[in-house]
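Troubleshooting entry. The earlier prediction with octanoyl-coenzyme A gave an output that would not parse, so I re-checked the input for stray whitespace and re-submitted. Clean input:
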Amino acid sequence: MYTPAITGTGVFTPQNVITNAELVAAFNAYADRKNTENAKGIAAGEIEPMQHSSEEFIIKASGIENRFVMDKTGILDPEVMHPALRQRSDDEPGIMTEMAVDACTKALDQAGRTASDVDLVICAASNHERAYPAIAIEIQQALGIDGFGFDMNVACSSATFGIQAAADMVRSGSVRAALVVNPEICSGHLEWRDRDCHFIFGDVATATLIERIDDAQGPHFEVISTRCATQFSNNIRNNNGFLRRSRPDGLVDRRDMQFMQNGRKVFKEVLPMVSRHIAEHMTDEGLTNTDLKRLWLHQANKTMNDFIGKKVLGREPLQGEQPNILQDYANTSSAGSIIAFSKYSDDLQDGDIGLICSFGAGYSVGSVIVKRHV
Ligand code: CO8
């Protein structure tokens, strides 16, 4: 058996930023157009008028200020209201591969490694741009990696579940080094025409290199332990899929073809699940809250993270103990906790212990306890 370690991380950040002000202006223009279009039905009481969105609500309800996206022109055009991505031929890299290669290259650079050191690629994300061939295999080819790759999807917990799978394979010796990459194009499956959720998501890609601790070339994080849990829930759901064409109304622009959630229920049900999960994971590893130097949480909602941080640490987290990036990136599904980890972990001292935790659709919760070695 070998001890696995995270030796490098990388973040690809798209060039387009959408501020809350831009987002709300586009949504409100769309709502006004719809209300004008439906004026008769609204006057007759047959159609509910669309309500405006507001910057104040978004900040207060979520803590999100900006989001990065692969295309903002389509999203901000009241006649389009979704990203407008160019058609790519089958002979050029797909958009997920393009994002993933950037993040993976940064992770390899940080670890002082090259593609020839890696023998597994897991593309773990909350949606994949096609069914097959696996995106991971395209990424593997683009990077020039021998070995194998596969895709996996556990929505918001894809990254932590991917880290568990990779760490277990490194531990057993079936692979020597693995890249877990999370290209999240949330803008493609977000419903930008629904004010309840149009502010929630952004695009990004993160990558994590996991290898034998004895192979580490520089400062790294030992993977002490991982834990995954799932419990079925319909409160976060997307019904799009390959059977769409075969359904009687398959081509209709149905609301449930995009992201849907009952945010209040998610909030109420996931909070206790996550708090319990972390507490039990720490107890089983012989750790108490005073042993934890940092918490890198899933980035969905500031209030939610404040609550979990307080519950886990048994007090208000100090500045920097539980870093949030959601104000800049919004919710980036599985990538959120890894962005926080990548940006806020270098300063930890030898022997410091931290915990990465994701949670979301499924429901799913994944936690990774790590120890710094410098
Ligand atoms: N502007 C103004 N008012 C608004 C807006 C808006 N944009 N949106 C809603 N309102 C109104 C509502 O209509 C409601 O009005 P009323 O009281 O008259 O009915 C009022 O404001 C309050 O609305 P909510 O109760 O919905 O507001 P909340 O305080 O609950 O906040 C949140 C909404 C932010 C969604 C919050 O519930 C939340 O964060 N919940 C947790 C959600 C969560 O963690 N989800 C995880 C999802 S991520 C995941 O699993 C990955 C899925 C795969 C990726 C998908 C990519 C697209």
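This one parsed fine. Residues 53-54, 57-58, 61-62, 126, 155-156, 186, 189-190, 195-196, 199, 201, 236, 259, 261, 263-264, 266-267, 300-301, 304, 331, 333, 360-361 surround octanoyl-coenzyme A (CB under 6 Å).
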